[in-house]
Amino acid sequence: MNMTALIMSSSLILVLATLMFPLLTTLSPKPQEPEWAGTHVKTAVSTAFFISLLPLMIFLDQGMESITTNWHWMNTQVFDANISFKFDHYSLIFTPIALYVTWSILEFALWYMHSDPNMNRFFKYLLLFLVAMIMLVTANNMFQLFIGWEGVGIMSFLLIGWWHGRADANTAALQAVIYNRVGDIGLILAMAWFAMNLNSWEIQQIFFLSKDFDMTVPLIGLILAATGKSAQFGLHPWLPSAMEGPTPVSALLHSSTMVVAGIFLLIRLHPLMENNQLALTICLCLGALTTLFTATCALTQNDIKKIVAFSTSSQLGLMMVTIGLNQPQLAFLHICTHAFFKAMLFLCSGSIIHSLNDEQDIRKMGGLNKLMPATSAYLTIGSLALTGTPFLAGFFSKDAIIEALNTSYLNAWALTLTLIATSFTAVYSFRVVYFVTMGSPRFLPLSPINENNPLVINPIKRLAWGSIVAGLIITSNFLPSSTPIMTMPTTLKMAALIVTIIGLLVAMELAAMTNKQIKITPMASSHHFSNMLGYFPALVHRLSPKANLTLGQSVATKLDQTWFQATGPKGLTLTQMMMAKMVSDIQRGMIKTYLTIFLLTVALAVLLVLI
Amino acid sequence: MTPVHFSFSSAFILGLMGLAFHRTHLLSALLCLEGIILSLFIALALWALQFESTSFSTAPILLLAFSACEASAGLALLVATARTHGTDRLQNLNLLQC
């Protein structure tokens, strides 16, 4: 066999084996030593990262991709399911990035979860999640993808509800599972359609056979699956609620890896969508709506983790817009760059939260610029990368997306929404930086501010390097399959930068007004709309179920029990029983009754005789 | 009908109705029974007078004797009821066992 192909396939299988090994050792009856999390899990992930760099280098050098089919799992007469791994450019680039980010997060979690008695179990859950995610990304057939999909969903549930003594955490975990399940219906619809009409779950076969079919039905299913998993509008409330989990969970699952699974699915199966105008338009409009709505909600949140969560949701909407533009590679680029700076933002938030004795409200932070200089520097870098500052990581993906938006023949409404959302990104990022790092401190004096632990700073430093150079590295090595449009008017070319700067200026003006009272009766309705998340959770989680239950109750009592029962059988029973009671009362055995009847009979007989 | 005829007939009927409609005490039923017997006694006595049949004159005395037995039987029943049920109130008397 070709040496290069052998190296590539075996190193990738070795990556998976390295990740699975700590999990398998937990099956033995001997309990782990307390340092197992640090010694075994973190080194497994970092080793896997370095191993996965080898196939990445082979790919960058020779452009080689491979598919490895290992095992015929189930074969019926007309259908077979195999275990097969596809290492194409998407999974080859995503796997090292995911492992790098996970390595940093695990190192951070060694510090963050230090006082937790179940830290080993926490790391086991994170590792299991990572294995499921890698399986999802490298899947070559829908069955394996579904295994990875469900795996990440379940681990998300277990990790969000980590502090399960807290009722809010349980609610949030349940929300995550239910919303993901609604999306899973779409995935199962698509899989069933593929099994019935194309008789295969292998992705290559699906691409080949789908030329003659109208793919609208499975594409709607796939878009529904992405809506659920990637928190698009309609199935989005679980993502801000998922911030109930520990910060490493938020950093890993709900910023870099799990929530991009839906977008990744659409990227993987993009050739099915290329020619289907309906699916593309749905993606475009749904993504545009999501990105603006969640950016609006982020503007007035006061919990630092929720702001970053909404920022994630907004960027996911942007990725969906990119898919709607027929540019899956730009969406993938944004996934990769977004992983770095979003994870870094979450780790900075975690460091700040722990230093301020578990304070998460930005109204009670301030002045950390002088007190935690490293963390606030990394926070600023992350925010700048998020807003698309030229030549940081976010710029390469975000600016390319906005340029593609501006120069395509598409829905102007989607374009407008996306541009407004881009300016909002600058606004809420500046709000976070202003409230956290600037001004004077608003927290208690004796806060245990300490960022000197290398377990905290090294991961964030690594991710900061990634946020700075990743965009450049990936763009230089990644050939686009469709030529981007190079010539456009200057205004369009600078559009992203212009709206971002406008947003920044507006935010600075608003921040300067925070310590003055300009209006005695402020206009509160727009603030309430944003703060209450557009009233979506209030309507969908409270009002709808209550209305449903009231309807059920009134149907059960008024319709079922009254009209059907009381006018029918029960009413008849009542009348009959009344008469039966009257008759049986007489026959109780009282002598008086008998004598009365006797007398009546005698009187009747006399009357009959005489008349 | 003659007034005398009417009077003992109505006495009989009233006593019968009192027997049938007695409300609380068994004793009132027995009293009504005595009333019935009394009206029958008067009827028999008037019958002998009306039809001038001397051989029938003993009938009222016979009735009286038998009524005494019957009244004593009724009183014995009353005492037995009072012994078992504790009172002669009619709501305690129930032929059927339910």
From TrEMBL, chain A:
Give the top-level enzyme category.
translocase
Q: How does it sit in the membrane?
A: Multi-pass membrane protein
Q: Name one GO biological process term.
A: ATP synthesis coupled electron transport
Cellular component terms, GO, for this chain's entry?
mitochondrial inner membrane
> This protein's superkingdom?
Eukaryota
Q: Could you tell me the EC number(s) of this protein? A: 7.1.1.2
One Pfam family it belongs to: Proton_antipo_N
Q: Which residues form the NADH dehydrogenase subunit 5 C-terminal domain?
A: 428-608
Which keywords fit this entry according to its UniProt record?
Electron transport, Membrane, Mitochondrion, Mitochondrion inner membrane, NAD, Respiratory chain, Translocase, Transmembrane, Transmembrane helix, Transport, Ubiquinone
Give the reaction(s) catalysed.
a ubiquinone + NADH + 5 H(+)(in) = a ubiquinol + NAD(+) + 4 H(+)(out)
- Where does the record say this protein resides? Mitochondrion inner membrane
Ranges annotated as spanning the membrane: 6-27, 90-110, 122-139, 145-165, 177-196, 216-235, 247-267, 279-300, 307-325, 331-356, 377-397, 409-434, 463-480, 492-513, 591-610
Q: Which residues form the NADH-Ubiquinone oxidoreductase (complex I) chain 5 N-terminal domain?
A: 73-123
GO MF, one term, reads:
NADH dehydrogenase activity
Note whether Transmembrane occurs among the keywords: yes
The NADH:quinone oxidoreductase/Mrp antiporter transmembrane domain is annotated at 139-423
Report the main location listed first in the record.
Answer: mitochondrion
User: What does the record give as the function of this protein?
Assistant: Core subunit of the mitochondrial membrane respiratory chain NADH dehydrogenase (Complex I) which catalyzes electron transfer from NADH through the respiratory chain, using ubiquinone as an electron acceptor. Essential for the catalytic activity and assembly of complex I.
Family in the record: Belongs to the complex I subunit 5 family.
Query: What NCBIfam families does the entry give?
Result: NDH_I_L
Q: Tell me the protein's name.
A: NADH-ubiquinone oxidoreductase chain 5
**Which organism is this entry from?**
Leuciscus waleckii (Amur ide)
Upper classification of the source organism reads: Eukaryota, Metazoa, Chordata, Craniata, Vertebrata
